[in-house]
Here is the input.
Amino acid sequence: MAIMSLWDEILSQPRVLGAFLEDRWHEVVSVADWISTKSFSYVVMAARGSSDNAARYAQYLWGAHNHLNVALAAPSLYTLFHSPPGLEDALVVGISQSGESPDLLAVLESGNAQGRPTLAITNNPDSPMATLADCHLDLAAGPELAVAATKTYTSQLLAIAALSAAMAGDDGLTTLLRKVPVAVNQILDDAELIRPAVLALRDQTRCVVIGRGYNHATAFEWALKIAELSYLVAQPFSAADFRHGPMALVEPGLVVLAVATDGPLFEDLADLLRVVRRNGARVVAISDRDDCPADALVRLPQGLPEWTTPIPATVAAQVFTYQLTVARNDDPDRPRHLHKVTKTI
Here is the structure.
């Protein structure tokens, strides 16, 4: 079997996302129907790494569309501290590409022991997490052989969005989701247009990454990819939190990466970017707004509702980071010290 490179995995995403919507929709509806039969008032999500960022997306999307409070579990409470919190009235959701990490399994085990409904979202229907949970949603993204997560992460985002639409019973949301693979394909067709933007960061050792709302998750995922592939210290922040202290980091030469999409948060984020530019920072922004204040703009297709933009924005961030890694003469297919499956306790 031919070994797929990270770039191959990135390029596969329009197909993978489209196939999920076509082939797995019945399973999404089935899971949403199962959820509707359960009594709970909030959601606890157990995740690590990129999957943690997918859970951040669920915090905003399931909150906005489904009126659910979503909390992120602290898995070490269940393992190293041996003091699992009470999960009364919770739906417990494990989200993991491999479904193998012992600390995440411990959260679901505690949910089962406390009589709470448990859902697993993984890319392996035979994984320990899928077997442990009451219900499983298969990402069906196919084997991901590159170390850095790409298609499994965007598939997680799509699964979360699809579940949201199905739980809401809103066919209009489903129709909007079907525009996402087309937008992702457009970004990949225009990948060379992103290359000039990486020059701002090529010779740097650190940066900050800012997002808010639905794209709070994208800022964290972009920062993670830059750290694991390009070896920069990349610190992610909510745009609101950045004003509370981290603004002191801004100085001439600092590179600020931002995800600023059209919506109710855009003007606040744009105002922050104007401030950091006045104080000497260089801004690279992923945006669907031509008026986004930035020194370099990575353009997203226009016309998508804001809640869907984390998927194409993440793909744009992947392309940016891949090109940055190559420009820095590092190997994106062999990130140092990392393995495909990481098992934490």
Summary: DSSP finds 13 helices and ten strands in the chain. Strands lie at 42-46, 69-72, 90-96, 118-122, 135-138, 206-211, 233-238, 255-259, 282-287, 296-299. The domain at 6-178 is CATH 3.40.50.10490 (Rossmann fold).
